[in-house]
Amino acid sequence: MAALGWLTPRRRSATARSVLAGEASAEAARKSSQEAAGTTEEQQFPVHGDDRAAAFFDLDNTVMQGAALFHFGRGLYKRKFFETRELARFAWQQAWFRLAGVEDPEHMQEARDSALSIVKGHRVAELQSIGEEIYDEYMAERIWPGTRALAQAHLDAGQKVWLVTAAPVEIAQVIARRLGLTGALGTVAESVDGVYTGKLVGEPLHGPAKAEAVRALAAAEGLDLSRCAAYSDSHNDIPMLSLVGHPYAINPDSKLRKHARELDWRLRDYRTGRKAAKVGIPAAAGVGAVAGGTAAAIALHRRRR
Known about the structure:
Distance between the termini: 108 Å
Strand content: 5-15%
Order of helices and strands: HHEHHHHHEHEEEHEHEHEHH
Number of strands: 8
Number of helices: 13
Shape: globular
Structural class: alpha/beta
Helix content: 40-55%
Radius of gyration: 25 Å
C-alpha cells in the first residue's frame, strides 16, 4: 500500500499564491462558460425587456458612410434643383470640413441661408417623396453593417432606437423608417400649409442641441438615461454621449477617440487602413448644421443675385 501513498491527498494550508492561482482558474472557467453560452458582459447588453432603456444613434459616419446631406444634394442636383457650378462649390465645402474639422459661425450662417433659399416654396410632401428615391439611389449601400447590427440588437431586446442628427428631420425619418428604427430627431424647417418658408424652427440640431433633444425625448418616453446607450463618431456629440450610461464611440474622430479612451467608453471602428484615417473628421459635423427642411441637404454657398 505504501506504493500507493502518492494517491492519498496531503493536507496542507493554501499559500497566497495558490489562492491566487485558484481564483484565477475559477474566473477563467467562468468566463469560458459564459462565452460558450453567449452571456459575457458585453453580450448581455442591451438588456432584454428593459423598457426604460433606448438607444440614440448619430447618423453621418456613424450609421452611414459620409454625410446624408451630401448624398441628398447629389439627388437634388440630378433633379435640376441647382446648377453644376453650385454642386462643385458644395463638393469643395465638404472637402474643407473633412480636412479642417472646424466650423466658422459666419461661414455656416451663409451656407445655411443658401440651403434654406433652395427649399423655400417647395412642398414638404414633394421633398419627402424625393427623399425616398434618393435613399435607394445613394444611401442604402452606405449603411455601416456593424452599426446596423448594434441598432438591431437594441430592437431585438425590445428597446426603441432613434436617429439623432443635424440633418433635416425629413431625411432622418426616411432613413429611420427604411432601417426599421423607431424614429428620428432632426433639424426642423418651418412650413406653412405644407410649404417651406425658408426658415428654421429654432436652430440646427447640432452639438449641445442634440443632448437637449435626447433629454426631452427621454423625459417624454419615461426613459432612464443611465440605462440608455448613445453612439456617435464626432467629438461634437460628447454632450449627448455623456448623458447616457452606455456611450459608444463609433468610427471616432481623433478628439472623440482620445476622450473615449480617457473615460473608458466602448469604441467600435468599422473602417480600415488609410480610409479610417481619412474619414476621421465627420463630414456633416459642420455641414449638418445647414439643415433646414429636406432640401437643406445642400450645404453650399449660393451667390446672392
